[in-house]
Amino acid sequence: MIRLQNLTLQRGPQRLLEGAELTLHPGQKAGLIGANGAGKSSLFALLRGELSPDAGECQLPADWRIAHMRQEVDTLERPAVEYVLDGDANLRRIQAELARAEAAHDGSALGRLHTELDNADGYSADARARKLLAGLGFANEQMGRAVGDFSGGWRMRLNLAQALMCPSDLLLLDEPTNHLDLDAILWLEGWLKSYPGTLLLISHDRDFLDAVVDHIAHLDQQTLTLYRGGYSAFERARAERLAQQQQAYEKQQAQRAHMEDFIRRFKAKASKARQAQSRIKALEKLEVLAAAHIDSPFSFRFREANKVSSPLLDLAEGRLGYGDKTVLDKVKLQLVPGSRIGLLGPNGAGKSTLVKTLADELQALGGRLQRGENLAIGYFAQHQLGALDPKASPLLHLQRIAEGEREQVLRDFLGGFDFRGNRCDEPVLNFSGGEKARLALALIAWGKPNLLLLDEPTNHLDLDMRLALTLALQEFEGAVLVVSHDRHLLKSTTDEFLLVADGRVQAFDGDLDDYARWLIEYRLRQAPAAAPSTGDKTDKRAQRQAAAALRQQLAPHKREVEKLEKQLGEVQEKLAALETRLGDGGLYDGSRKDELKQLLAEQTTLKGREAQLEEHWLEKLELLEKLQQELENVE
């Protein structure tokens, strides 16, 4: 097990941990959370043996194999698949010794090493590496390309694949989802759920934490507190702790009133579909859990536009792409004030192409794109962080677009993004990715947009800033079109989804759980067809017997899938009814707190049952589809 006892850890003059205690048992999966700079990455370095405690003890089993996701890439000429295989150091050792034994014609060593290779699953290593790369979004033709050919974000995916390739007892992952799209995150969730070792994970993605971990280790004020359950359970537990303090309780009441106002405003408009209900549910959840973020340094809003057009944008028969390459065709999209749209779709399908075209960074190749007379776009994309003036301070950046405004007004506005005091006046040259993202959002928020085009806005943002962004988007009166791998943000700020796939943009009638199932089917459709059979050499009788055996196996699996679907439907019906009851504004009166507490407990139980059934159903469905594919190949 991992055991930290009375641990003190210091980096330079800053004390990160003092008297910290933590125990993690083999096989546990824990999320490590805390403010930026609190010491999460330093704790990882301590566990890897790169740092030593200043006091106390850090105990790990001596024979544990530790894998971690590197932040640098040093072999740019290496083919991607070989780079991933390098993650298994023992495999590479055996392969090197095999090469030497073959050159020396050492039969005894060859026999021993081939046994070692078999024990290390070396014969399947290349296939496993390619499966990891495919899951993380790499196409087959990309797997042989040199590491240096890929952008920084894709190199981080290669580092993640390399860490997953390494056989380990302890896996340390620092922000693994930062450079992933939603498809790859859903795949990674499934991989980590089946990981048999101990997992310690730094992440600012609350839905990802809820799906993967069974404990949360919170690093706050130089101490570590371990909470049972995922991130939502942590929020509830921490909210209860904070509510015991009078000052925190008073702040929570103000936040609660703010949330109830949001619920009332949105429920008056919500008339459509599960997406609307999901948003109400998310708002109610935020109301209950907001106290966990009562000490957040972030609080801001998007300033209201002076004028509005309707529609803001109207795209008809759009043909979008780059140069002579068409990525999307026959695109029809109209954005009006109040539109709240989330873009879904596989990696590379054209989501960013659509957003860049709407933002006027790309010219449409065909069709008609009409912009409203009073259109004011706030556009956020990762590449814009590099466009910030490295020599200018946050205050100077804002002064350039706010001519004539008093300096104190600008400083107060930047304070909502946690740029305070001297930090307002420091050049952004050495700012972190998160600080640059906050500054880019601050400049957009000041600009009074009536249309927000957001392409992965939560990259590098911590949990408190993500909550502040969610609240600001909920309050924003204009239109929002967002691409994000943060499912909580999508559920909380959008009420309809568009699916970008196969060269088309069309409405997606479902929620994010439906999208996860759609992705499974999409990947199966995209899988390469099986090689043709060599009919002359096939034993027809054996082929018929194999097909009959497979059909016999299929029947019980079909029945089990249908049974699980029925059970899942029943649980979802109960959840829908329960969430309707939770939508009653009167339920949040103090006199009905026991009823609310009981309903929330029932909701937690049902959600746990839903997740369990869904996971089991997906596993059985995948197995059923695999058997069906085998049967088609045999027949």
Automatic annotation (TrEMBL):
<keyword id="KW-0547">Nucleotide-binding</keyword>
<dbReference type="Pfam" id="PF16326">
    <property type="entry name" value="ABC_tran_CTD"/>
</dbReference>
<dbReference type="GO" id="GO:0005524">
    <property type="term" value="F:ATP binding"/>
</dbReference>
<protein>
    <submittedName>
        <fullName>ATP-binding cassette domain-containing protein</fullName>
    </submittedName>
</protein>
<feature type="coiled-coil region">
    <location>
        <begin position="547"/>
        <end position="581"/>
    </location>
</feature>
<dbReference type="InterPro" id="IPR032781">
    <property type="entry name" value="ABC_tran_Xtn"/>
</dbReference>
<dbReference type="Pfam" id="PF12848">
    <property type="entry name" value="ABC_tran_Xtn"/>
</dbReference>
<keyword id="KW-0175">Coiled coil</keyword>
<dbReference type="InterPro" id="IPR032524">
    <property type="entry name" value="ABC_tran_C"/>
</dbReference>
<dbReference type="InterPro" id="IPR017871">
    <property type="entry name" value="ABC_transporter-like_CS"/>
</dbReference>
<feature type="domain" description="ABC transporter">
    <location>
        <begin position="2"/>
        <end position="246"/>
    </location>
</feature>
<feature type="domain" description="ABC transporter">
    <location>
        <begin position="300"/>
        <end position="527"/>
    </location>
</feature>
<keyword id="KW-0677">Repeat</keyword>
<dbReference type="InterPro" id="IPR003593">
    <property type="entry name" value="AAA+_ATPase"/>
</dbReference>
<dbReference type="InterPro" id="IPR003439">
    <property type="entry name" value="ABC_transporter-like_ATP-bd"/>
</dbReference>
<dbReference type="InterPro" id="IPR027417">
    <property type="entry name" value="P-loop_NTPase"/>
</dbReference>
<keyword id="KW-0067">ATP-binding</keyword>
<dbReference type="Pfam" id="PF00005">
    <property type="entry name" value="ABC_tran"/>
</dbReference>
<dbReference type="InterPro" id="IPR050611">
    <property type="entry name" value="ABCF"/>
</dbReference>
